[in-house]
Amino acid sequence: MSEEANTNSSKPFILIGVGVAVLAVGVGYLLFSGDDAEPVKPEPIAVEAPKPTYTPPPQIETPKNIEPIVQKPAVKAPESMDIPEPEPAKPPKPELPSLNQSDTVVKADLSSVYSGTSASPLFVNQDLIRKFVVFVDNAAKGDLMQKHAPVTAPSEPMKVVASADNTYTLDASSFKRYDPYVSLLSMVSTDTLVDNLKKYQPLMDDAYQEIGYNDQAFVDKLIDAIDVALATPVIEKEIKLVAPSAMYKYADPELEALSDIQKLLIRMGPKNQMKVQARLEQIRAELVKNY
Q: 61 versus 95: which is more confidently predicted?
C-alpha cells in the first residue's frame, strides 16, 4: 500500500476529533456559565490599610505626700447624771474664851437652851466647866462630890417613914424633889446636849489637864461615868433604910455596897432613874460614834 492512501484514510478521524473538541468546549461552556457556574474570582484590589490612631494614656498626677488621717474615736456625750447640790457651808466655830473667862458664855448658852423653863436657877454661878469636869471625874470612880457638882442640891430634905423595928422606909414623895434635875436631861434633845459638849470640849480638856490628866481626853472619862450610872439597878419595891448614925443607910447590904453615885440614882425613884438612864444611853451612843 502507498503513502497517499494512508493520508486520505486518517482525515475522517481528525475531523471527528476536532468536532468532539468543539462540542466539548461548547457543552462545558453551557454547563458552567449558568447560575451554578463558579464565579470568576476578581482580581484583588489593593486597599490601603488605615493607619492606627494612637491615643496616649491619660497622665495621672503624681500624688503629693499626704499625711494619713487618723480618725479619732467619737467622743460620747457625757450621760446626764444628777449632780448633788453642795451642802450648805457650816458656820465657823465661834472662838471660845479662856477657861477663866468661860462662865459668861456658858451661862448664856444654858439660858438659850433652857429658855422659858425654870432650870436656870439649878446651875451654880461660878466655874461651871471646872466643876462639871471634877464632878464627872469623881462619878467615874463612883464617888459623889456635891461641892463640885455643876448644879445646886435639892432644897427639900429626904423624907422617910419610921417603923417600929427601928427601920425606915424611903418616902416615895421624896422622889419628886429630883424632878427638876431629871427635866434638865429630858427637855433638851440628845443632839443639843452633845453639840454643847463638842463646843466646850477644848475648855473641858483644859480643866481636865488642870487636875492632872495630860494623856487622856475628857470624853473618855465622861463615858466611864455614864457606864457607872447605867450599871445602877432599878429598885421598884419599897426601899428600907437604917440609921445607925446621923446618916441613913440602905438596909439591904447589896444596895449599901453600891457606889455613892449609884445610891443617888436610886434615891431619885425608879421612874426618874429610868428616864436618866435612857437619856444617858443615847448620849453615850453619840459620844462613841463621834469621838
A: 95
Distance (Å, whole) CA 267 – CA 262: 9
Per-domain residue ranges of the chain: 99-290
Burial class (CB in 10 A: 0-12, 13-18, 19+), 226: buried
Q: Distance between CA atoms of 108 and 123, rounded to whole angstroms?
A: 12
pLDDT, tens digit, 9 for 90 and up, residues 14-41? 334 334 333 333 433 333 333 444 444 4
Predicted confidence (pLDDT) per residue in 200-222, tens digit: 999 999 999 999 998 889 999 99
Neighbouring-strand partners of residue 28: none
Pairing of strands 240-242, 249-250: antiparallel
CA dihedral 122, 125, 127, 133 (to 10 degrees): 0
Which triple of cell numbers denotes residue 201?
470640849
pTM for this structure?
A: 0.66
Cross-strand bridge partners of residue 160: 170
DSSP 174: G
Buried b (16+ CB within 10 A) or exposed e, 161-188: eeeeeeebebeeebbebbeebbbbbeeb
Q: Cell triple for residue 113?
A: 437652851
